[in-house]
């Protein structure tokens, strides 16, 4: 059976856990060969590799620190080289930086911007030469860029808000090449760093219209749609997957 992304090649940054892992596995289930980067656990990365291979697709795990622009660029080149091409780039890697303003060092702010913004720019810049018409660039933002309901989110909200402008500008620039650029904006999502049964979960649920956290697979489903051929006329868009958090 032919699937929506049959024989496409995708690279997912930060793909060893949480939303990134769900995206990597979903793209594979839709027919893509998938490379992904990871920084921490080799065991987690190996698990995602096996889940991708279980769909019948090729998998490549690339150790790379998104704070290092050389490592980011090298990961893109290795993904395209190992899998033969590149059709979809998902910029998912991020640091969830939460700290009061008075306690935030400039070095911490710069790290958040390096991983959450600069790495997106660098990976996109490196990926575009490998993409033909129909290429897809999809970045993962955050609902707190629109609604920061807790203190201490200045670094994170600033970095994620920057992706809105980056997405729009890239969409305009790459449109003539038929490469689309979109931003998926999750709300509260059940991950290791923000579990649906965590101490603040009940309060966070109250900020959403649906009264619950998303499953990572729900975010991955939207990313997968934007990677499909039928999404070819969507670019420069910010797509919320936030359970009504910002309405």
TrEMBL record:
Domain Ketoreductase positions: 8-187
Any one GO molecular function term: oxidoreductase activity
PROSITE patterns in the record: ADH_SHORT
SMART domains attached to this UniProt entry: PKS_KR
Keywords attached to this entry: Oxidoreductase
InterPro entries: KR_dom (IPR057326), NAD(P)-bd_dom_sf (IPR036291), Sc_DH/Rdtase_CS (IPR020904), SDR_fam (IPR002347)
Similarity-based family: Belongs to the short-chain dehydrogenases/reductases (SDR) family.
Protein name as it appears in the record: 3-oxoacyl-ACP reductase
Organism annotation: Virgisporangium ochraceum
């Amino acid at each position: 059976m032919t699937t929506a992304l049959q024989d496409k090649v995708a690279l997912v940054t930060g793909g060893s856990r949480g939303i990134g892992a769900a995206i990597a596995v979903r793209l594979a289930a839709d027919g893509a060969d998938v490379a992904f980067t990871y920084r921490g656990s080799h065991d987690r990365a190996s698990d995602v590799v096996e889940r991708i291979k279980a769909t019948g697709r090729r998998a490549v795990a690339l150790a790379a620190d998104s704070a290092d622009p050389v490592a980011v660029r090298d990961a893109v080149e290795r993904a395209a080289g190992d899998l033969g091409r590149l059709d979809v780039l998902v910029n998912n890697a991020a640091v969830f930086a939460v700290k009061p303003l008075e306690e935030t060092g400039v070095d911490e702010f710069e790290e958040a911007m390096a991983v959450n913004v600069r790495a997106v720019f660098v990976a996109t810049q490196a990926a575009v030469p490998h993409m033909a018409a129909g290429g897809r660039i999809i970045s993962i933002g955050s609902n707190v860029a629109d609604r920061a309901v807790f203190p201490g989110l200045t670094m994170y909200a600033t970095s994620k808000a920057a992706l809105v402008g980056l997405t729009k500008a890239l969409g305009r620039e790459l449109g003539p090449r038929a490469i689309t650029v979109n931003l998926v904006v999750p709300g509260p999502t059940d991950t290791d760093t923000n579990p649906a049964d965590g101490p603040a979960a009940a309060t966070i649920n109250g900020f959403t219209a649906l009264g619950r956290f998303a499953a990572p697979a729900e975010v991955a489903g939207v990313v997968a749609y934007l990677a499909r051929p039928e999404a070819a006329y969507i670019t420069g868009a910010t797509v919320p997957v936030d359970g009504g958090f910002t309405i």
